[in-house]
Amino acid sequence: MKPGRQRLDKWLWFARFARTRTLAARLVEAGHVRVNGKRAEAAATALAIGDVVTVAAAHTTALVRVLDLGERRGGAPEAQTLYAALDPLQG
């Protein structure tokens, strides 16, 4: 992986969009995650700061901009520093 990039499944887990890294990978493989408007094809998709990620979960859809890649899975307050929520109407 290039410097300044991180695997998508790892970031989704760090940012608490999935309870485990395995579940994060399944979200991607099931087609529920887009990066910059394009469906992510693999859990190993490289993610960079500034990318826009869309996660279609069971009860909601999250549209976020990546602010940081993170180094570990911390608590919810720490996870929320990894992204900024975007208003889907403003894109």
How is the secondary structure organized here?
Layout: E1 5-7, H1 8-14, H2 21-29, E2 33-35, E3 38-39, E4 46-48, E5 52-56, E6 61-66, H3 76-79, E7 83-85
Helix pairs in contact: 1-2
List keywords for this structure.
alpha+beta, 5-stranded antiparallel β-sheet, Structural Genomics Hypothetical 15.5 Kd Protein In mrcA-pckA Intergenic Region, Chain A, single chain, 3 helices, 22% helix, 91 residues
Could you explain the architecture of this structure?
By secondary structure, the chain is of the alpha+beta class. The protein has a single domain, classed as Structural Genomics Hypothetical 15.5 Kd Protein In mrcA-pckA Intergenic Region, Chain A. The protein has helices at residues 8-14, 21-29, 76-79, and strands at residues 5-7, 33-35, 38-39, 46-48, 52-56, 61-66, 83-85. The chain has a 5-stranded antiparallel beta sheet. A two-stranded antiparallel ribbon has the order 1-4. Strand 2 and strand 3 (38-39) form a beta hairpin. The chain is globular and about 25 Å long. It holds the Pfam family S4. It comes from Methylobacterium gossipiicola. This is Heat shock protein Hsp15. Keywords: RNA-binding, Stress response.
What is this entry, summarized?
One of its GO terms (molecular function) is RNA binding. This is Heat shock protein Hsp15. With 91 residues, the protein is α+β, with helices and mostly antiparallel strands.
Q: What shape does the CA trace take?
A: globular
Tell me the span between the first and last alpha carbons. Answer: 28 Å
Give the CATH superfamily: RNA-binding S4 domain
Total count of domains: 1
Structural class designation = alpha+beta
